[in-house]
């Protein structure tokens, strides 16, 4: 049986640029780096950057994205740092909790979000999406 998410691997076209983006701007911990990749971490997350010159840097048209948790206290600080670095947004926030949706240097869609599954479900119970069903008790 599955016990959790093991790791995320993102294809990148410029490893050094991506290591700087994730380790310095987003402040993930750089664990290891080699000629074609790097491992970074946050509590509960192992992120692998894998050099792939075939990566299409255009963001996909779909909603697939990777969201990172952030406290309400730190949200405006990171938002200011991302704006100062001229990080491109890709969507406006349309859900509960503060969120900022942005692109990494290779067009991967990312989000920083204040809140968790419990806060999202609570908000959805108050204003459910169309045809939404709940399978757990509040």
Task: Show the helix and strand layout.
Elements (H helix, E strand, L loop, with lengths): L7 E5 L2 H11 L3 E6 L2 E6 L2 E7 L14 E4 L5 H10 L4 E3 L7 E5 L5 E5 L3 H10 L12
Parallel strand pairs: 1-4, 5-8
Antiparallel strand pairs: 2-3, 3-4, 6-7, 7-8
EC number: 2.5.1.18
Keywords: Metal-binding, Transferase
Organism: Pseudomonas hefeiensis
Number of strands: 8
Span between termini: 25 Å
Radius of gyration: 16 Å
Share of residues in strands: 25-35%
| SSE arrangement, N to C | EHEEEEHEEEH
Q: Detail the poorly predicted runs.
A: none
Mean pLDDT over the full residue set = 94
Described by strand count, sense and barrel closure, the largest sheet is:
4 strands, mixed
Which descriptor suits the 3D outline? globular
Widest beta sheet: strand line-up: 1-4-3-2
Q: What share of residues is helical?
A: 10-25%
Helical run tally? 3
Structural class: alpha/beta
InterPro entries: Fosfomycin_Res_Enzymes, Glyas_Bleomycin-R_OHBP_Dase, Glyas_Fos-R_dOase_dom, VOC_core
Keywords: Metal-binding, Transferase
Enzyme class: transferase
GO molecular function, one term: glutathione transferase activity
Summarize the structure in words.
Keywords: Metal-binding, Transferase. This is Fosfomycin resistance glutathione transferase. Its EC number is 2.5.1.18. GO terms for molecular function: glutathione transferase activity. InterPro entries: Fosfomycin_Res_Enzymes, Glyas_Bleomycin-R_OHBP_Dase, Glyas_Fos-R_dOase_dom, VOC_core. The protein is α/β, with parallel strands linked by helices and 138 residues long. Helices cover 22% and strands 30% of the residues. The protein is built from 3 helices and 8 strands. It has helices at 15-25, 75-84, 117-126; strands spanning 8-12, 29-34, 37-42, 45-51, 66-69, 89-91, 99-103, 109-113. It has a 4-stranded mixed beta sheet with strand order 1-4-3-2, with helices on one face. It has a 4-stranded mixed beta sheet with strand order 5-8-7-6, with no helix packed on it. The two termini are 25 Å apart. The model has no long low-confidence stretch (mean pLDDT 94).
